[in-house]
Amino acid sequence: ELKAILSQQEDCKEQQNSKAWDGTDFPWTPALEKILRSVFKLNSLRPMQRQTMNATLSKQDCLLIMPTGGGKSLCFQLPALVDKGLTLVVSPLVSLMEDQQMALEHLGVPSAMLNAATSKGDLMRIQDDMVKPNGELRILYVTPEKLAKSKRFMNRLEKCYAVGHLARIVIDEVHCCSQWGHDFRPDYKFLGIMKRQFPGAPILGLTATATIKVLEDVKKILSIPKSLLFKASFNRPNLYYEVYEKPSTQKDFMDELYRLISRRFSGQSGIIYCFSRKDSEEVTSDLQSRGVKAGCYHADVDAASRSRVHRMWLSGEIKIVVATVAFGMGIDKPDVRFVIHHSLSKSMENLYQESGRAGRDDQRSDCIVFYRLADVARQSSMVFTEMTGLQNLHGIVRYCIDVSSCRRSLIAHHFGEMWDSSHCNNMCDHCDKSRNKGSIEKKDVSKYCVDVLSILRAAADTDQRMTTAKLVDAWYGRGAASLKVKSVAVPPFSKETAERVLAHMLIHDYLQEDFHFTAYSTICYIVPGSKAKLLQNNSAKILMDFQVKTAKKASVDVPNNSSAVSSPSATKPLISGDSSALSVSKRTPSSASK
Ligand code: ADP
Ligand code: MG
Ligand code: ZN
Question: Closest ligand to 89 CA?
Fold first, then answer.
């Protein structure tokens, strides 16, 4: 609760800040507008860019939180040309700096980069320029290591400041300062001395991810307690979010996918993101065999074919790119009408970014995830080596198996944004009033979960390992005889519901993954989780949301009206818990598993 109040106060402050700094009557406004057009060839600023630029040009310390792709770089690149002096940019990744610097060079902006690979000659030239009151260099990128480790460079920076030439200090990916963030970099701690060394140079921190805890930490570490905070919303009002239950056979799935793109998205451009290179190739050739103009894009496709696919897609010669996440950087096609996830992404962040490539032109566009439990295991054996990989994956599983919440509220919550679901405007499968949804009821599924744990215990007793697929089979009395448990009844609901119960148990720690390695792959088995004991001794109950009425099966093949922000007139039932089945106690295994 305290957290909610604090975050409400923060929101209030942000709104005030946003109003106060939105002005177009600052002394630099004319220059700013002119450079925006003449140098950057852009027509207008995006939300929060003006506020940030005005604040930093007024020498205020500030932090900007903006989703990836929102346009954070412009917030320092443009001011760097508005005022005299040098803008120092600290960035954690050399590749990011290289990309930016190349783009700047292209625009004719004097910039440079210092890292471990910088030649001695370049270093000398740059360091000489820095201390000249009329130095030419406007933007200098450095790694935090360079700052922390090179005394000589710090000396130069002090001189630069002393001659009044240091305009501001920009810290990109500023959450890296905080150990609470997902990406802590020890060298970022060193940046704490910047404010003391250069009190007159405003600090501008940029990030896409920041919870209140991280932000408070960042302010403390950088010694900028009074820093302004600007936050661009993560909400993309023109994107319609939905989740489909993925058909269990490849054939059914492809039929459904084909129906979608040949009817609802007929003639429209889109992206289909796949989990693996193999998946993307299979989907591409299946679609091509059905006459769809689709191209394939992943890291193993040779560079020439990749750029041909990209080019043909940009020009509209092919409508669909079937790709892995390798298809991402630098995609700027405005009229992407749909992004379909063939399998769930590895995190909410990824989902947001990948689906965010739709609708850059602000026209209504659709973001669809096909969800199935089997894909969770595939993802988890890829991401479990990352520090917060499983935690992130469970975050998106929560999004996928939710049967009632506004998808926007789930996204906003993930990014620590306050959200009122009435703002969704019917633009997600759960808010859309044109859909036939039953009402939501909470049901106690504890006894089924106890059954699941009994099956796992029996398997462990006989030294057998369970995948989720085997677990479901054993639950329905199918599969290997040795894995079945007599005392466990066949569940009185569909296999889809059974899978949803398992996913729920997984993300709430009643179950957990157990990884085993073979020479060629990692296998994800499933075992009781840290909270399993609570369930077995009756000190926990598991309640899950179900739709009371089974949504009627409608077709997905209604063309959508891409030019208007309106709801699609028909859709397939989403991940619906078929609660009606929950109360039906007699079902044979075969009828229960469809
Ligand atoms: P971020 O760092 O927030 O992820 P970038 O600074 O890399 O985002 O910008 C993402 C893209 O948005 C770039 O292609 C950039 O040119 C573009 N962009 C930024 N500001 C604007 C603007 N005001 N109008 C149009 N495009 C913009
Ligand atoms: Mg950036
Ligand atoms: Zn909604």
Answer: 2
